[in-house]
Design brief:
CATH class of the largest domain: Alpha Beta
Strand content: 15-25%
Number of domains: 2
Order of helices and strands: HEHEHEHEHEEHEEHEHEHHHHEHEEHHEH
Strand order of the largest sheet: 1-2-3-4-5-7-9-10
Radius of gyration: 23 Å
Structural class: alpha/beta
Number of helices: 16
Largest sheet: 8 strands, parallel, barrel
Number of strands: 14
């Protein structure tokens, strides 16, 4: 299961002077292409889901595909929620499968940014999830996801130091001259500022707006503590040009013909970036250094006393609604035995994002109130156990075919 802890991944990158690419996922074609590119050069990679882009696709549906793709990939993968504006968005991202989150309070006054980021860190760390914060405002250029052409505000090293110390964020996004979107002018990177930030901040640094820089500029960023580079606008333009080219070649092309070669185009560019950023052939080292990302199944089997079937159903319905709101809970299943005669008639199966949720879930007020008022008084006969999956290495098609798992087509 190559999903890994993103904090471990980026700490390894900073310590070994390379950068992991975080590539925005807005469609299945980009998801396939990003994973192909990373696998082609044996590099770790981050699948990036950007909150302002959710208006273009169904986040929950595409996230399910991303989790499946990450779990079967042979290279280390992390899944990141980018630019969440509040705690509610962060909790939703964790619920649907992200194992890294960004709270973007960069537009707020410093004290408010600190206050809200600290609250996000407290909840996310209780779920085992690392957090990215941002100090300074990164410029926005005209593009498909940008409407206001926002002017950047560079990061001050002393504010960056205070912010990390007061919030305990795991990564810091900084503004040193890059911008979201593609500019018609060359970026002017303030590398001296970046070097000063790197000296006073002891967490991996993140660059947003990574498109359009030269190979030499990328090397300068990495040499000054940058461990993750967000990259999308150049990919978006390449995909658009590929689709336009397909349309010009065949004006009557159907949907699949228009998408022909899109994933390959993405894969080649992702591989090129990861090689430039010195991330190629790092997969095995990251897999050895990073904590595997294993969810937990919280299982309770029980019997009810002095409860009718209607009362039992009402309790389970209420429990599914309440427990699903607890941060770090990804799924709540309540069930009744298929056949009578077994020792236990009912069960709960609650999926946690990370082992740390075992403790934060136990003391969460909503869980405690439900357990004390609705469940425990009527379920004294119960067993509760937490399980982690025992995963084998992913099998490729040849192995599956040899084992009989894949039949003739």
């Amino acid at each position: 299961m190559p999903l890994v802890n993103m904090r471990d991944m980026l700490v390894h990158a900073r310590g070994n002077r390379y950068a992991v690419g975080a590539f925005d996922i807005v469609s299945l074609e980009l998801l396939q292409g990003v994973l192909r590119g990373a696998e082609a050069c044996r590099a770790p990679v981050i699948l990036n889901f950007v909150v302002p882009q959710f208006k273009y696709y169904d986040f929950e549906m595409l996230m399910a595909a991303a989790v499946a793709g990450a779990q079967r990939s042979p290279v280390p993968v992390a899944i990141h929620l980018d630019h969440a504006a509040d705690l509610t968005g962060v909790v939703q991202g964790i619920r649907h499968g992200c194992n890294g989150v960004m709270f973007d309070g960069s537009h707020l006054p410093f004290e408010e940014n600190v206050k809200l980021a600290r609250a996000v860190v407290e909840v996310a760390h209780g779920c085992g999830i690392p957090v990215e914060g941002e100090i300074g405002v990164i410029s926005s250029y005209a593009g498909e996801d940008v409407t206001d052409g926002e002017q950047g505000l560079y990061t001050w090293p002393d504010e960056a130091r205070q912010f990390v110390r007061q919030t305990k964020v795991d990564f810091l996004a900084v503004s040193i001259g890059t911008g979201h979107g593609l500019s018609t002018e060359r970026s002017r990177l303030d590398l001296k500022r970046l070097a000063r930030i790197s000296r006073v901040v002891d967490v991996p640094l993140v660059i947003h707006g990574g498109s359009g820089l030269s190979d030499a500029e990328y090397k300068c960023l990495i040499d000054r503590g940058v461990a993750r580079i967000n990259y999308y606008s150049a990919l978006s333009r390449m995909v658009s040009r590929r689709i336009c080219s397909n349309s010009l070649q065949d004006p009557d092309a159907g949907y699949m013909a228009l998408l022909h070669g899109v994933s390959d185009t993405v894969g080649r560019e992702v591989e090129r970036c990861l090689r430039v950023w010195n991330a190629a052939n790092r997969a095995d080292a990251v897999l050895a250094a990073a904590e595997p990302w294993n969810e937990v199944e919280h299982l309770i089997v029980y019997n009810l006393e002095s409860q009718s079937e209607q009362q039992a159903e009402a309790m389970m319905t209420h429990g599914r609604e309440v427990l699903a709101r607890v941060p770090g809970v990804r799924r709540v299943f309540s069930g009744r035995a298929v056949r009578d005669g077994g020792k236990y008639r009912y069960c709960w199966l609650v999926r946690f994002a990370h082992p740390k949720v075992i403790d934060s879930y136990r003391v969460h007020p909503e869980h405690a109130a439900f357990a004390d008022e609705w469940f425990r008084p009527f379920a004294s006969d119960r067993i509760s156990i937490d399980y982690q999956a025992v995963e084998s290495a992913p099998m490729d098609d040849a192995v599956r075919e040899a084992s009989g798992e894949i039949g003739e087509r």
